[in-house]
Write a structure and sequence with these properties.
By secondary structure, the chain is α/β, with parallel strands linked by helices. The protein has helices at 25-28, 54-57, 66-78, 90-102, 119-134, 151-156, 160-163, 207-222, 250-263, 284-287, 332-347, 350-368, 405-417, 442-460, and strands at residues 33-37, 40-43, 48-51, 111-114, 139-142, 173-176, 233-236, 239-240, 246-247, 266-270, 294-297, 309-312, 375-381, 384-389, 420-421, 423-425, 431-434. The chain has two domains: 15-64 and 349-460, Aspartate Aminotransferase, domain 1; 69-347, Type I PLP-dependent aspartate aminotransferase-like (Major domain) (Aspartate Aminotransferase, domain 2). The chain is built from 14 helices and 17 strands. Strands 4-12-11-10-7-5-6 form a seven-stranded mixed β-sheet. The chain has a four-stranded mixed β-sheet with strand order 1-2-3-15. Helix 10 (284-287) links the parallel strand 10 and strand 11 (294-297). It binds pyridoxal-5'-phosphate (PLP). Pyridoxal-5'-phosphate (PLP) binds next to helix 5. It comes from Phytoactinopolyspora alkaliphila.
Amino acid sequence: MTLTTPPTLDSDVPPRQRESSARSYPRRLPVTLVWGRGAMVRDSGGLEYIDCLAGAGALALGHHHPAVDEAIRDILDRGAPLSTLDLPTPVRDRFIEELFRVLPPGLRDGRILFCGPTGADAVEAAVKLARTVTGRSGLLAFGGAYHGMTQGTLALTGRRSAKEPLGPLLPDVHHLPFPTSYRSPFGAQPRSEPHGGGGRSGTAAGGAASGMAGRLVEWALGDDLSGIAAPAAAVAEPVQGEGGVHPMPAMFAATLRSATRQAGTFLIADEVQTGLGRTGALWASEAIGLDPDILVLSKAIGGGLPLAVIIHKAVLDGWQPGAHAGTFRGSTLALAAGAATIREVVRAGLAERADTLGRRFMEDLRTVAAGDPRIGQVRGRGLMVGVELVDPESPAADGVPVADGSLAAAVQRQMLQHGVIVEVGGGRDAVVRFLPPLTVTEGQLDRVVSAFGSALASVRAGSS
Ligand SMILES: Cc1ncc(COP(=O)(O)O)c(C=O)c1O
């Protein structure tokens, strides 16, 4: 049959109603964004917001940073090829040079693999590599983890509700408790404080959980009776993000590193969200001494454009050519934007700045909400911050009240009214999450704190 006229679309259906019901953010953030600069975005009605979502942490330099815009414009002006798979280009070479210059010392003589441009694909690649090199299939992951939405990375992820509709995922994955300082599977934490700690030592709040979680790792990997055959890899986030902003204590990192090394199990640090300065250090894993065998990076390293890589120690370079492939492993625009972002984060000392600003920001959040029993804990590292909200009237297990997701949703809605975009996450989605660009100004953070305080107050007053 030959079509003489194109088929007509039902013109009454607005384009966005054609999107799948899996669409998620607009349900909680009903805005149509038309402009962005730095940490600010504007909607189609002319209202401006401070963007503490920042592409889920992908926009380390915010919207349209001049260095990134210039790098993109340069590619367009020079007519460089836009998509080159893994063929060499000067832009790709420059990206590799910029990244290797700043990697943790343990990986500086490692190898880089460009993956399909999502964090999930890079985690898949890391797992495939560890399985190939060790000849083992097992994987160790942690409760509360988030590693992506493919069927392999979902198997590693903690959130059960995302897996339960799907049936069997990647087999031979074992989850152990992550050492959280507030709501711990080990019960009450002797030194946990309602308003939490952001320190790196692991001896602050959560020290006991850290010790117990570490012992479980040692047992799982070292005891013949643990029931877990020696795994190919352990996969962990140095600060859990989607799981509710839980920093990994340095004490636990040391145990995880030594236990995996003893078991011949590779250690994969998923720094998709934490990488490139977000947590107040260039690499969150380096700051806690994790020394991974494989580092997984995406989000910020593409300067807001899609890019994902793994970097692994040279001894793991045992793959056949083409063992992990994908069409979009050579996006020139992303490589140029990424190289410019890495350079700028380092040049402007944005990691150190994130540390300073993050500490002050968390203190200010604690102050604005001081005495409010609905604040469970304020925690985070650098500019990766979360506030867990609780229902103080609920029966407290081990002294910790039930997490209150509807309160967090109401605060998120109210903050939008006050001109701030935030995300929620964690158990019951009760953690209000702040991931502003690393270039956010102190004045903008002050406004975020005040919007948070006003949102909490108005929810109490019943106006949500
Ligand atoms: C730690 C971590 N790993 C992996 C992913 C998955 O990345 P992507 O959404 O690009 O697949 C995310 C996304 O938020 C993440 O935070």
